[in-house]
Sequence to fold (281 residues):
Amino acid sequence: MDIKIDSVLRWIGSKKRLIDDIKKYIPTKFNNYYEPFLGSSVVYLNMPFKNKAYINDFNPDLINIYNQIKSNPKKLITLLKKYKKEYSSSSDKKDYYLKKRERFNKIKDKMNVERAALYIYINKCGFNGIMQINKYGNCTTGFGKMNNPKMLDEDNIFNFSDLLNDKTTIKNMNYVSFLKNCKKGDFVYMDPPYVPCDKKQCTIKYIKDGWKEKDFKKLVEVFKELDKKGCYVMLSNSNCKFIREKFPKDKYKVKKLKISRVLCPNAEKRDNENELLIMNY
Fold:
């Protein structure tokens, strides 16, 4: 599809500002495309796959959004229009926001079109688009004081739906299990949780359970298993000692990409830094 499609979410760690750099290093030829940590879907939306695409995220709310875009775009648009109209005309926008957040938390076990629309609404109207989830699985994102948020683009959602219906399979599972079907010649792009920087311990939880050291070690194992299979593998992560030691430049192609972390809660840690793009080809 040649039509440009944008993500429907504001997302910390989104590859929107790095996508042009990432596209430079996509293999010229590959079979199927796998993306186990979909996030805001920016890379998938810019991926020139010709065969099949398999996309996945462990966050059920994200996958619910993509499933609703794929199968129920009209209803999703209707709800988003409703929320935007009600929010814009509300005399107490914070109160309206908090009521929608309360409703979102009340239906945490219902992955349906209403919850998808509420997630997008909170994401657009919450503070800095940070979808903060506490240990009880409830969203605690603060009010963002947005007067006229861009809630939706109808054409973009319909185009997104067409793309998802065109040779794309959506999964919500552990990334290790998701990647077991990868074969020689397939391309895998991995954008997992980042190893905390050596000097800047700036982390925000997108789901209630964050990654620990053992999870990062497992990631390295999975990367190397895919490499042995003959898959093309690209990994984004922080420019830290752990990653540099596990992926030395004499064995892998390692590129530094400059990025500004403007949404870190600690203002002193918001500056330009390098993150790493690692490839086995």
Observations:
- DSSP finds ten helices and seven strands in the chain.
